[in-house]
Amino acid sequence: MPIEGKTRREVLTEFRHAEILAAARKVFSEKGFRDATLEEIAAAAGIAKGTLYLYFENKEEIFWAAVRERLLELHARLKEVVARPGTARERLREILRVRFEMMRRDEQFKRVYFAEFGQLCGYGGPHAEEFRQLQVEAARLVAPVISQGIKDGELRPVPPLEAAMALTDLVRGTAALSFLGLHENHVDLEQFIFDLFWQGVRKGDSKGVRKGDSK
């Protein structure tokens, strides 16, 4: 019987797929990509190793799928924020909250993302182009908020897509340094990045911004 437009088989396949990726993030975060084995991923998912090959060709493909799944979840949350009414300041602040919330609630993904993804998704890696496209897509989701802020007089006439990419880079770079222990623990990085970005793009004492308000 179809469930929300899907057959029972499709639902079970998606569920098993998600279980494998959750298990993979756990194993990769504990062992690292190089030392993790398909046997360990299968055991963590509660399935036989051979079953993995029904879903993925190799360990590299599992790794990318585990990263990609979380990035697509982030995109879905960003779409929700962008669709809400509010000022550019309010929505940009919420966009940062969503990004940091994902890293806070999924420690395994954070370890995998910052410690391991470079060799596969970074420059020259086999998934570099796919990763780049996802990053551009995320920026394109945020760019309309910046465009609307410019139109409303909140923001300076900055290039919307480039500004959105800069915000993404600020978050990723700062979070990576924090992961490496290069930031003071008492610093609220989420608020720090927002203040830094907002001061760079806001239009003086523009509409909706109080004089002297750095938040």
Provide a concise account of the structure shown.
It is built from ten helices and no strands.
Describe the fold and architecture.
- This protein has 215 residues and is mainly alpha-helical.
- It has 2 domains: 1-56, Arc Repressor Mutant, subunit A (Orthogonal Bundle); 63-201, Tetracycline Repressor, domain 2, CATH 1.10.357.
- Helix content is 72%, strand content 0%.
- The protein has 10 helices and no strands.
- The chain has helices at 8-35, 38-45, 49-52, 59-83, 88-105, 107-116, 118-121, 128-151, 160-179, 189-201.
- α1 crosses α4.
- The radius of gyration is 20 Å and the shape is globular.
- The model is unreliable at 206-215 (pLDDT under 50).
CATH class of the largest domain: Mainly Alpha
Name of the CATH architecture of the largest domain: Orthogonal Bundle
Number of strands: 0
Radius of gyration: 20 Å
Using the coordinates shown, work out and report the CATH topology of the largest domain: Tetracycline Repressor, domain 2
What is the number of domains?
Answer: 2
Provide a count of the helices: 10
Terminal-residue CA separation = 52 Å
Which whole number gives the mean pLDDT? Answer: 84
Low-confidence runs of at least 5 consecutive residues: 206-215
Report the portion of residues in β strands.
under 5%
Pattern of helices and strands: HHHHHHHHHH
Give the structural class: mainly alpha
The geometry reads as globular
Helicity range: over 70%
> What is the CATH superfamily of the largest domain?
Tetracycline Repressor, domain 2
* Main sheet summary: none
